[in-house]
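Hey forum,

I'm writing up a methods section and want to include a predicted complex as supplementary material. The small molecule is fe (ii) ion. I've pasted the protein sequence and the SMILES. Can someone with a working setup run it? I'll credit the forum in the acknowledgements.
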Amino acid sequence: MPIPQPVFDPPFNIVRCSHAVLRVRDLDASRQFYEQTIGLVVEHADRDTLYFRGLEERNHHSLVLKRGPEPVAERLGFQVASEGDLDRAHIYFKERQLPAEFVEVPFQGRTLHAVDSEGNRLELYFQMDQAERILQQYGRYRGCHPQRIDHFNFFTRDVRASMNFYAALGFRLTEYTSSDDSEPRIASAWMHRKGSVHDVAFTSGQGPRLHHFAYWVPSPLNIIHLCDVMATTGFLANMERGPGRHGISNAFFLYVRDPDGHRIELYASDYLTVDPDFAPIRWSISDPRRQTLWGTPAPRSWFEEGSVFPNTPVGPPKFSFAPVAAD
Ligand SMILES: [Fe+2]
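Reply by user p_vandermeer:
Happy to help. C-alpha cells for the complex are below, copy them as they are.
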C-alpha cells in the first residue's frame, strides 16, 4: 500500500500544532475543570473567553474557550515559522479553492483562518504574545501537571485524502493502521512536524469532527494521580477511557471529557521521530494492541462521539471499520 514520502521543502513552514479554540456553554464550569482539575494555567480571562496554557509553554495560550450556545470546535491552531509563511499559506489554500482569509486575533496578531481539504477549520499564525516562564514555579503545579499541547486527532471521512493533504505540507507519517485485505485500506494515520509521534492524527469516521486534543504530561504517574483526583472530586463520569498504554505511539494515556463533552487526552512517553529516514510503523486494524497495548478495548463512545465544527456538515466515512468496543 503506498504511503506518502516525506516532503522536506513544503510550500510553507508549519512548526507545530499550537492551540485549540473551543466553544463551551458555561465558562465557570470549564474553568473549574481545566484549571483546578486538569491543572492548566489561566493566562487571561474576560467575560466571554478563557485563555489557558501548559506549565512549560511561553506562548500566551494553547487552549481558548469561548462562551457559546453550542459546544463546538471553532478552530485548531498551528504556528508557522515566519510572516512570509503565512502569506505563502494564504496563496496555497486559495490556489486550491479552499477558504482562507486574514483576521486579527487577540494575543496572536495576524492570523490566517483556513479550512483543509476535508473541512477541518484551522488558524495559522506566526507570533503569539509571550508569557512569564512558570516551568520552575512548582508551587503552581496542579492536577496532572500538563506541560504543553501535543496533538490534535480528527475524525475524517477519507483518511488517505487527509494524509496526502498534510503530507504535502511537510507532515511526516510515523504510524498508521490498515486493513488486512489484498488491497489494504488505511484506517488511521499519525503525522508530525515537531519531531514527536504526531501533531495531527486522522481516524476514519463521521467527519469532519475533532476527536480530541492532547496535552503532554511528565510521566504516567501524573496521569494516575489525575485519576485519583477526578475519582474523588466529582469527575468520575468524565473519565472516558484509560489509563492505559497505546500500542501506537507507545504513549501512556487517559481520555477525559470536559463539562461540554469535548475530549482531552493526557499523554506521556512517546518517542523521537526527527530522523529523515524514519520508517513509518504499520499496525493491522485487527491487532487490539494498537489501541491499548494491554488489549483492553475502548468504550463505544470513543469511536462515535466528537466535537463538530460550526456550520460544517458531517458525513459518513469512505470506508467503515467495525471497531472492537468494550460494550
Ligand atoms: Fe491522541
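Some notes you might quote in the supplement: The helical segments are 27-38, 83-95, 159-168, 220-232, 300-304. The CA atoms of residues 191 and 259 lie 29 Å apart.
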